[in-house]
Amino acid sequence: MAQGILKDTMANAMLVKDLAEVAKDTALLHGVQIRVHESPNSSEVVTYAPITLFPSPVPKSAFYQALAVQVHYNTLVDKISQDADFLQKALASTITVDNFTARLFKIHQQVLEEGKAQSIVLGLNRSDYMLDQKNEGCPTLKQIEINTFAASFAGLTSHTPHVHRHILKVAGCVEESQRILDNNSAAGLAEAIAKAWELYGSKRAIVMFLVEENQINIFDQRCIENELWKRNISTKRKRFRDVSKTGSLDPDRKLFVDGQEVAVVYFRNGYMPQNYQKNANIFNVENFKLDIKNWLMSGYFPLSTFAGLYTLDMGPEGDKTIEMALRTPGLFVLKPQREGGGNNLYGAELQQVLQEVKGSEERMAYILMDKIHPTPVQNILLKRDAPLKISTCLCELGVFGTYVSNWPTMVVFQCT
């Protein structure tokens, strides 16, 4: 949309400046905002969240394909998480070289040995896609990763359509503004959390948001909190150190924090090793398996919507993968097994790392993925204190999915 109809608009510097001011105000008006880095734990000063001035185009067929396949990923993730033998086999190589994964898996095994105290399982997933334009014709949907742990931005993106609709109208594109779909991701996540809370069976119990030390993105989480309060479900925000100090398990292995019974722990933090330095075992529940599933899904399921994935395990197949990548590094991306995308390696850096680890087990901490060739689009990025300029953008499509099971019965099962 921004690529074609709005090309002339983006070339008009004065108009862009006016539209940018309107977009910033509209974002703040609708809650598309974050705290500032100077004071991440105070809402006295806030700013608009980074956002594009115009919406980015997604082909209708690819969009609905992503929605349709999400419910199947929900099933896959749930079944994998309940298959202890499969998890152990699939994660064997990663556990060997990644202490963090190994530690979480040890907690998982301890839970199994002690016996599960809870049969209710809540899954909040987000699948991220790019449109691959490697060949001529229509672009194909390729999954970059599936986030099963602390997946963010359901809240802010629920309000983003209001901003883009308004900007298109102000820019004179009224008809195009009507093509912007509603986004109800925050309500969808809250609905699943509420169902899990209901199945827990205690109206006095709370939903605990386990949050970061620095809470810049608090408004994204507040959207979900508010949806739960609309349902008269109490929520509390706690950090790991808070739970370490005031958390306990009663004889029935129910979790209490500050004397309040906790029905659901919603992890918005906990994906870094330092989060588990002490008292990690207080969460003697199945939530830890959510993180394990993320890495498993990232490395072992080359399905039709996945970009090509190649093992770096020790052995002939892994050796062949390394030779292929060193020979044609421009065709691939090297990804850490348990990382969400910020430390991907390309080209010369990819070659350097593979040369360093090719003869050791350290290589199993990575996976190799086909490089996606997304169609670039022109847009203008709005970010605090950043100059206004036309940028070449590579877009991702994120699709949330939720499920609640009282194993083996699936209770809630949907794309949000």
From TrEMBL:
Residues binding Mg(2+), per UniProt: 145, 147, 339
Catalytic activity: gamma-L-glutamyl-L-cysteine + glycine + ATP = glutathione + ADP + phosphate + H(+); gamma-L-glutamyl-(2S)-2-aminobutanoate + glycine + ATP = ophthalmate + ADP + phosphate + H(+)
Keyword tags: ATP-binding, Glutathione biosynthesis, Ligase, Magnesium, Metal-binding, Nucleotide-binding
GO cellular component: cytosol
Pfam family membership, one: GSH_synthase
E.C. number(s) listed in UniProt: 6.3.2.3
Coiled coil: none
Residues the record lists as binding ATP: 145, 335-344, 346, 369-372, 396
The keyword Hydrolase is annotated on this UniProt entry: no
Domain Glutathione synthase substrate-binding positions: 205-281
Pathway: Sulfur metabolism; glutathione biosynthesis; glutathione from L-cysteine and L-glutamate: step 2/2
Top-level EC class as recorded in UniProt: ligase
Binding site for substrate: 126, 221
Cofactor details (free text): Binds 1 Mg(2+) ion per subunit.
Cofactor(s) the protein needs: Mg(2+)
SUPFAM superfamilies membership: Glutathione synthetase ATP-binding domain-like, PreATP-grasp domain
InterPro entries: Glutathione_synthase (IPR005615), Glutathione_synthase_C_euk (IPR014709), Glutathione_synthase_N_euk (IPR014049), GSH-S_sub-bd_sf (IPR037013), GSH_synth_subst-bd (IPR004887), PreATP-grasp_dom_sf (IPR016185)
Oligomer and partners: Homodimer.
Function of the molecule: Catalyzes the production of glutathione from gamma-glutamylcysteine and glycine in an ATP-dependent manner. Glutathione (gamma-glutamylcysteinylglycine, GSH) is the most abundant intracellular thiol in living aerobic cells and is required for numerous processes including the protection of cells against oxidative damage, amino acid transport, the detoxification of foreign compounds, the maintenance of protein sulfhydryl groups in a reduced state and acts as a cofactor for a number of enzymes. Participates in ophthalmate biosynthesis in hepatocytes.
Family designation: Belongs to the eukaryotic GSH synthase family.
Name by which UniProt lists this protein: Glutathione synthetase
